Every structure is written in C-alpha cells, then in structure tokens.
Known about the structure:
This protein has about 675 residues and is of the alpha+beta class. Among the domains are: about 5-170 and about 220-255, 3-Layer(aba) Sandwich (Rossmann fold), CATH 3.40.50.300; about 375-440, Alpha-Beta Plaits, CATH 3.30.70.870; about 450-565, 2-Layer Sandwich (Ribosomal Protein S5, domain 2), CATH 3.30.230; about 565-645, Alpha-Beta Plaits. An 8-stranded antiparallel β-sheet has the order 16-15-21-12-13-20-17-18. The protein has a 7-stranded mixed β-sheet with strand order 2-3-1-4-5-9-6, sandwiched between helices. Strand 12 and strand 13 form a beta hairpin.
Amino acid sequence: xxxxxxxxxxxxxxxxxxxxxxxxxxxxxxxxxxxxxxxxxxxxxxxxxxxxxxxxxxxxxxxxxxxxxxxxxxxxxxxxxxxxxxxxxxxxxxxxxxxxxxxxxxxxxxxxxxxxxxxxxxxxxxxxxxxxxxxxxxxxxxxxxxxxxxxxxxxxxxxxxxxxxxxxxxxxxxxxxxxxxxxxxxxxxxxxxxxxxxxxxxxxxxxxxxxxxxxxxxxxxxxxxxxxxxxxxxxxxxxxxxxxxxxxxxxxxxxxxxxxxxxxxxxxxxxxxxxxxxxxxxxxxxxxxxxxxxxxxxxxxxxxxxxxxxxxxxxxxxxxxxxxxxxxxxxxxxxxxxxxxxxxxxxxxxxxxxxxxxxxxxxxxxxxxxxxxxxxxxxxxxxxxxxxxxxxxxxxxxxxxxxxxxxxxxxxxxxxxxxxxxxxxxxxxxxxxxxxxxxxxxxxxxxxxxxxxxxxxxxxxxxxxxxxxxxxxxxxxxxxxxxxxxxxxxxxxxxxxxxxxxxxxxxxxxxxxxxxxxxxxxxxxxxxxxxxxxxxxxxxxxxxxxxxxxxxxxxxxxxxxxxxxxxxxxxxxxxxxxxxxxxxxxxxxxxxxxxxxxxxxxxxxxxxxxxxxxxxxxxxxxxxxxxxxxxxxxxxxxxxxxxxxxxxxxxxxxxxxxxxxxx
Length: 663
C-alpha cells in the first residue's frame, strides 16, 4: 500500500469477556469490510477463526484484521483477554502505535484490564478506553470512568455522555455537555504552557487549536480519552473511529527506537526510505506452512524480492507478501511503513527478528515474553502417538514463545510448560486436533536425590571362579558427606601398588555407576567424597570389570551404613502481589514448607522473595491466581538441594517401592 495513504495501526485489549472481538467485528462492519455482523456465540466472527476459539467462545490467539474508514486504512489486532494467553498481547504491543482498552460497563476495571494497562504502558503506548456493554444489567458509564481514574490513571478523560442508548460526542456537541467540554479544554491547556497562558487569558481555545493540541497530548500520554458504547448494537462505533482518525497517533508521527551493534540508539522514522521491520508473531498455517507476521516501521518491501535478517545475519528470499483478514491471506504487491504484513516459507526467520532492505546495522528491542510458570509431564497414549509428539510440539513452540518443551535429564520425563492450566489444555487439544497426537498430562516427578550424613569405611570384594580364568577385585573405600552442591569427589590414596594404576579408573567408574541409583528410593546419589585407600588384586584374575563391580558393591554397602537421606530441590520464588493479599500469600508460603526471605514495595504491589520446595510448586500458578483474583504473578528458579523432612521422605520411599512393584 502507498505510504501517502493515511493509516492507523492499533490493538484492542482488555479483560476476557468484555466484548473485544465483538468490537473488532463492529469496526469491520462499519468499515464495510464485512457485510454482516458475526457473533462470538455462533463462532462466526472474523477474528476468532480457530476451531478451539469457536468451541470455547473466546479468543486464544491474536488476530489481525483491516478496513477503511473516511479514506483511512485501519489495521488492528484483536487480542485475547485470558491471562494464560498474555504472550499474544505482549507480542502485539510491539507492532502498533496505540491501544484501545475495552472495559465492561457492568464489571468495571478487572484484573485483565490492569494487566493490559500495565503492558501497554510499559511500552509507553497511548491508550483510548472503550467502555462496552452499556446495555448490560448494572452498567454505569460514569462509575466506570471514575474507577479508571482511581485505579489506573488520573489522566483518563471522558469524551462522551451516554444517555438512553445514545452516545453524545462532547467535542462535537459542546453546548449539550459544556462541563465535560470545559474539562477537556482545561486538560489540553495544561499539557502546553503556551496554550495554558492563552486559556487563562481568554477562558477558551478555538477548535483548531484544541484538536491540534489534543492530538499532541494524547500522543504524549498526557490525556487518555474514554468513550462508551454497545459493540453488538453498533452504538458508539462511528464515534470511536472518528476519534481514532482525529486524535490518535498515526504511523507517520510515531518514532520507533532500535540499537546498532555498538549499542547506540537509532530513531526509525516512517518516512525513512530504507525498509525496516520486526517479526512479532509466527504461525504454522496448514496450507502455506510457516508464516511470519511483521510490522513495517519504514520504507516498503515488494513481493518476490530479497530481505536481510539482521538478527541472524543472513539473507532470505521473499516470495508472495500478504495482508491478513483473520484467517484469510490476501496477496499484495508490497507492504509499506505503518502496515502489518505476512510472508511464508522463510528458512531461518522467527519471532523477534529484525528485517531490513538493504542491510542496515540496527536491531529492534527484543519482545520480553514472560517465563512459563505451569508445568506438566506428557506421555503418548499409543506407540503411534509417540512418533507424532515431537513434530507437533516443535510446531507449537514455534508459534508460542510462552510455551516451552524440555526433557528432565534425571526423571527422563517430557515436560511441557506454559502460562497456566488453560494454556496447556489448549496446547494438548491442538496436538490432538491438528496433528492427531494424543497425550496424557501428569504432574512432573520431583527430581529427588540421595546423599549420606556420616562417614563410613567399607570393603567391596568381588571374587568369582568359573572353570578357567576367574574374576577378582578388592577395594577399601571411605565415603563421607560433601558440602551441598559439590556433587562428587573421587580421591585416590592407593600406595605401594595395592591396586595396579590401570584399575583405579575402573573403581571410580563402578562407583559412579552405582551412584545413578541410590538405596532409599532409586534416586541418584550426590554430594559425597569417596576415597579409595586400600585393596588387593590377583595377577591373573583381576580385570577392569572386576574392579568396576567391586567399586559398585563397596558404594552400595557404604550407603546402607552412612545414614542415607533424601534431598529435594528448593526454588527461589519471587511473588508480586497487591498489598491486600499479603496475609494469604505468606500463609500459603508457610503451608508449602517455604521460607520468606524478604519483602519490598514495588509501585502498588509488594514483592515477596521466598524459598519453597519444588514439590510444593507444581499447582502454584493456579493457586496464586485463585487466591489473588488473578492479580498475583511469580517467577521461579532453582536454588539448591535440602534434606527432605523424615515423615515426608518415608512417604516418598514407600511410593517408590510401590512403583517398582507395579513396574
């Protein structure tokens, strides 16, 4: 599309079930991009086109749509409201110039509203609030405006009066809403010293000055307009679109910041002839394969050309370019600055990558996706499923940076991790529906370990006579506890040739092999020092294997005598919660056998640092969300291993024995 065409590129976000997709549909209908209004309940909207979105009647993925209004090309992203899919909103924020935050007129500011506000403001995006569902029972426009001012920003300013299902535009009908109009004028005047002086002198501003200054104040996040409507009835949609093209920032007036290889900041202007873009989303399409979705920040890119991927330092061949209308891919000749485009079948280009044409030394900032907080183990239901799992998971991780797959080196389990239980359930459904891979979810096994608590000296002697040549290996070792985290130390104190030098590595090999499975519950042994200090050999019958077996026998005997105990992984946990939930959160930490290490204030929230056993954390994402009404978040990393309390250790040992019997 031509750079001279007026454009707006924005996202729609907010709490789940506030009517974001219905608003997207209403905008498309007003723009005459569709001829009939789809309904979320019927699964007929342009945005919610995935099968699981239709079944659940809510958005799971971001969806890009477009339309034209009063000679303006509008491209916008409908984002999901559930916190499990927050990665979609985080990706979208990188690709737009402002946000429309949708708030329910009956429920007001909810946790999803707060999260959306937090994310768009972190990127310093201008925002407009749309109070939707004004036909719902208990709806109250003025009350919600006050709540936005109190809980989110004092700079929220109402631009409408809602009266008997009619939305009155304060800017156009200033006589009917003089007090609100004057409030807007005052706030605009306060945003500019010159205008403030003029306003104090004359008591008013002329319309041209007002709109020009208002655009500037909105772009600088000095004013956040608030309007209302009923998306499903097309009420307030014209007004929303008028405000979007009148006062919200266009790509032409938006600067994007990048850095060169020296770390210097580069301002990217949409008028720059050099093409620059960033990939913010990748999807696997059943027809075209891997599809990269990118936002162009300057210049233009033509179909069937070449691009430079600065992030990977490679050139890529560009085939057909597309713009997206929900699931539809519409071929276009070129994508220009301020637009969102898509291209298929690039070999090594993925989410986050910076693209330029020709090469320029600049990188757009990476998208900071949150780390997964909820994990489950995955088992194939049948042998056929086993073959399909790997390919399915690989494709799903390429689409979703908040979804991770790993294999635990100790338990050998395949672990999938995401933003919550709902997130993983959706992933499992997609594996089944898209790739015919059926799996069972389970709670991951805790990678316990075993260690000793006292020093012992033992002999390990292996002697076997079978007709011809026999086997003979004899070792004396001392086993003692090592400092936690030191894992293993082997000390050779053989003197006088009690064991030939070539058999000493065999002894160590046998000990290490025996350490793979402890005596209590079969977990690996760690944090021990083994000193080989004596032994004997046979000039004919001694061999590498005989000394391996002797070393293994000695260690097992030592573990039985050295008061072996179980160790469990302890995690560093950082929890961010509003002040009012501190009591429940700290009480819950104690109930999980955790220790609070410290607290500090961070804005409206408290940050609690604690150490909690991993075995107590597998369902924490859901529990914390439940306790805090979705307002609490946490991150977790491994700290160290500690001895498991005796009563709990006994249960773990009994369960391990049962599993062994069943196995």
